């Protein structure tokens, strides 16, 4: 089988000893099993933009910046040089994320090198020392599925503590080894502090994990766990030990009622805090009204047997006109 030229170039440089076989091909890259330094590892070779099928790339690229201000301006103008730099930034984003996450204790494959657009990483092993299977390929028992789901929520929390949202997380992007789940595939990862879509992407990631759990346990229900994680992040109370499931349970009012009860409680509090319309309205001023009194016939010359005179009606006690001079 013919392997990508870039792997042959790395073999010529002595970085890779041998290319054994392809492991998988995805929408972003091809993954190969190689030997480097006498150890089996994986080499991830990114596809060219014309061969990738990842959609809505601009959502994930928001907030990404490069060190060179000249290159950044070229990327913003979408010039030929800018497009080339943008392509390189897309390829290197996974390497940047995975090195950062590994340093923060997130369960990701240990990265070793990123050279010429090739990411060289640890081979995650499953049963019998073979490459670990993806979570989507497994059928799990109810208890095991809940355990793995809780572990994955913990990895999402640790990633956000490192300032990163995966952005495309599902059971297809998780490997399972003897110690638990390992998260993979980060080219679309976003910076939580600089991408306006970060909250939406994090909630979607957690919802995807909930969908995995519901497939394994039909009695499971989707809960707003992603919102709990993001709320703690916004409140600057998020730590790697944060448990969104426990936080959601303790967030419910003592009398029960779930989200509906919480909404009712907040509405009642707003109504209690707001001043009443009667208390805040200005005092009313009595309106002055005039009446016409008809005098008896023959009241005066030239008035045709009737004359009219106007008389002010006496205002009610306490009104604004009670003290007016007559």
Secondary structure: elements and pairs:
Blueprint: H1 5-12, E1 18-25, E2 29-36, E3 39-46, H2 57-61, H3 69-77, H4 80-103, E4 111-115, E5 118-122, H5 142-161, E6 164-165, E7 174-177, E8 180-183, E9 190-191, H6 198-216, H7 225-234, H8 244-251, H9 258-273, H10 277-280, E10 290-294, E11 308-312
Antiparallel strand pairs: 1-2, 2-3, 3-5, 4-5, 6-9, 7-8, 10-11
Report on this structure:
The chain has 326 residues and is α+β, with helices and mostly antiparallel strands. The protein has helices at 5-12, 57-61, 69-77, 80-103, 142-161, 198-216, 225-234, 244-251, 258-273, 277-280, and strands spanning 18-25, 29-36, 39-46, 111-115, 118-122, 164-165, 174-177, 180-183, 190-191, 290-294, 308-312. The N and C termini lie far apart (113 Å). Residues 254-281, 291-308 and 319-326 have low confidence and may be disordered.
Q: How many β-strands, per DSSP?
A: 11
Distance between the termini: 113 Å
Helix content: 25-40%
Percentage beta strand: 15-25%
| Major sheet characteristics | 5 strands, antiparallel
Low-pLDDT segments, ≥5 res = 254-281, 291-308, 319-326
Strand order of the largest sheet: 1-2-3-5-4
> Given the structure, what is the number of helices?
10
Shape: globular
SSE ordering: HEEEHHHEEHEEEEHHHHHEE
Please give the radius of gyration in angstroms: 36 Å
SS-based class? alpha+beta
Rounded mean pLDDT score: 79
């Amino acid at each position: 089988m013919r392997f990508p030229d870039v792997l042959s170039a790395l073999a010529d440089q002595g970085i890779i000893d041998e290319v054994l076989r392809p492991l998988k091909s995805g929408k972003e890259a091809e993954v190969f099993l190689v030997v480097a330094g006498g150890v089996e590892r994986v080499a991830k070779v990114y596809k060219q933009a014309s061969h990738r099928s990842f959609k809505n790339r601009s959502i994930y690229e928001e907030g990404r910046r490069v060190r060179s201000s000249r290159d950044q301006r070229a990327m913003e103008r979408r010039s030929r040089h800018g497009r080339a730099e943008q392509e390189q930034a897309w390829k290197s984003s996974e390497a940047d994320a995975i090195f950062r996450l590994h340093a923060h204790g997130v369960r990701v494959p240990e990265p070793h090198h990123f050279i010429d657009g090739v990411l060289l990483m640890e081979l995650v092993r499953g049963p019998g020392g073979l490459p670990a299977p993806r979570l989507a390929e497994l059928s799990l028992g109810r208890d095991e599925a809940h355990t793995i789901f809780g572990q994955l929520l913990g990895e999402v929390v640790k990633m956000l503590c490192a300032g990163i949202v995966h952005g495309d997380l599902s059971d297809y992007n998780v490997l399972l080894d003897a110690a638990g789940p390992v998260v993979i595939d980060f080219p679309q990862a976003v910076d939580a502090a600089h991408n306006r879509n970060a909250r939406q992407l994090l909630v979607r990631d957690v919802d995807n994990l909930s969908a995995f759990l519901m497939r394994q346990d039909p009695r499971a229900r989707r809960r707003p766990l992603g919102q709990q994680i993001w709320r703690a992040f916004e409140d600057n109370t998020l730590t790697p030990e944060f448990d969104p499931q426990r936080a959601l349970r303790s967030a419910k009012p003592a009398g029960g009622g779930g989200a509906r009860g919480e909404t009712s409680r907040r509405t009642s509090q707003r109504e209690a805090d707001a001043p009443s319309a009667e208390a805040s309205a200005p005092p009313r001023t009595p309106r002055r009204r005039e009446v016409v009194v008809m005098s008896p016939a023959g009241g005066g010359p030239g008035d045709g047997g009737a004359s009219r005179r106007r008389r002010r009606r006496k205002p009610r006690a306490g009104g604004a006109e009670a003290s007016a001079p007559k």
